[in-house]
Amino acid sequence: MRDSAAQGMGSPCCPAFSRGAVVSGGPEPGEKGLVYQEAPELLQGVKPVPGEVEAETPNGSSPGVPPEVRLSLRRWAVVLLFSCYSLCNAFQWIQYGSINNIFVHFYGVSTFAIDWLSMCYMLTYIPLLFPVAWLLDKRGLRLIALAGSAFNCLGAWVKLGSMKPHLFPVTVLGQVICSVAQVFILGMPSRIASVWFGSHEVSTACSIAVFGNQLGIAVGFVLPPVLVPNLEDTEQLAYHISIMFFITAAVATVLFILVIIVFQEKPPFPPSRAQALIQLKPPEEYSYVQSILRLLRNTNFVLLIVAYGLNTGCFYALSTLLNRMVIQHYPGEEVNAGRIGLTIVVSGMAGALLSGIWLDKTKTYKQTTLVVYIMSLGGLVAYTFTLSLGHLWVVFVTAGILGFFMTGYLPLGFEFAAELTYPESEGTSSGLLNVSAQVFGIIFTIAQGKIIDHFGTQAGNLFLCSFLLLGTFITVFIKADLRRQQANLDGEQTRLQDSSHITEYGM
Fold first, then answer.
1. What secondary structure does DSSP assign to 156-216, as a single string?
2. 0.85 cut: is pTM over it?
3. Would you say residue 244 has pLDDT above 90?
């Protein structure tokens, strides 16, 4: 979701809230000890507010003078810790769907009711996005991280109280609490990347942050079928389910404690020129409502919102209904259904990391996004027509190809949005992308589920293929207006010109 991606993966996984964006390209300093001063010309027009800039300016810099730019070693601890609690949350998203038939038997409810345990993640996100984005803009990154990990931990413990067949409402409550945690998680990847990482590594950092969400979905596909076998005895079934829930709660608790200890609001020094500029900008100059309005007037970004929602919504639907589709063609293969889901997500994580590295080196956002979208469509078509052939190894291969491109698209969407919308908040832009994904995810999951029930899996997958084709055409019309790149180039030229003037003066 979320994305997975599905995250995200996704759980409804890659995926940030901030009052600015990172400028990619151009040299950046290395680890501690390598510093330089920014050219003052970069900050023309920014009027510092007395008493506020001093508090924001590290290392005792004077008001109006750009702070030193350094990279902090803690950035890796921050992004890895985020990935871990994002992993835990994504696991809880898909843990019901990956053994849908077992939970249907245990709680005595319909498959549609179990599907809603996944879809509640999507539904909760839509109304809560903007309040959470506003809260981050006002209170900061650390508070959002604490809230996300705390809700994730609480929801995991609540589920332990649902170990009787008549306690289905309790497991629903626990899942809803976890879905609230997801709202504090999904938009964070590009925010963490921009606040903590230099411009030469920002896309890779965003991919690593999304990576955790995707890994959680992968674990959610493979672990529940192993921990919870398909048994007729509800008492034994309750025992196995309780083991899975207890492990999840223990891990979520450890991660919450680590977030309290390790997670910081921002590094002591800005990691890039763009962040140096943002830290000197008075908070009063930022208007959340005006930012949203500017984003919705950005035609290229609106097209990306729709294209991203179509792609990621298809991924959410496939992830939620995967168990049902595989079991329909291969009865009794719950474990292999989970392994197919694992294949989709693990190959997608490889795609996400490679796409992040590729973008950091080439900056070809439009071209890369379009190629990945086309290959996602091709992968889904191949998966659609091989699922019913009766050869599981073929399904594994086509599912891996599908996952490599479809899941690999998630961080591409975040980074392309940051380019198109600079210097607007990554949190707002990422949030709008995720809202689109949740809306399409709910629609596609319900519609595909009904189509599968009445017409079979092939018709349901072809339904998704038609929308991926539509998203491909929409992507063609997005112009590569890379504002973040242009800002970085302008800043670099100003710095070089300033250095040239200084040399001439010395002579």
1. HHHHTT--SGGGHHHHHHHHHHHHHHHHTTTTHHHHHHHHHS-TTTHHHHHHHHHHHHHHH
2. no
3. yes
